[in-house]
Known about the structure:
This protein is α/β, with parallel strands linked by helices.
Amino acid sequence: MSDEQFAAAPEWTVSEWLNVAEPLNLAALRGRVVVALAFQMLCPGCVQSALPQLKRVHDTFDSSRVAAVGLHTVFEHHDAMSPTSLRAFLHEFRFDFPVGIDAPDPAGGTPLTMRRYSMQGTPTLMQIDAEGRLRQQTFGHDADLRLGAAIMALMLEAAGG
């Protein structure tokens, strides 16, 4: 596919970043493949499959070439999924990749990044190429081998191969 077929990934609107010294944004991650996961810590599919998979991506690939990023996108059970609860959850499960808290809609609707990406729910996995274009967005879980192959293809593309 030609480059024109892929739109720039919308910037994330994050109220707070965890597990990083400085806030992240897509412009700062340019040059790396970005694997981002929108999740909720009370989502069974996120906890059982998607978050462990993102940790494997984070632990497997060179962070100078692939950025694994979580986006805590809360659209239900707001009181139970506070930033304090999220910090404890990340610590207990040893999820040490960067996690941004998707900014809530001031009017009480869908969180801002979730709306911007037209997500159906969680987990949602996004693959963003080194040029900042959204190449794949999947609602639900994808197989490790398929994701690994897609990441490698984007890495080869970024290297000019």
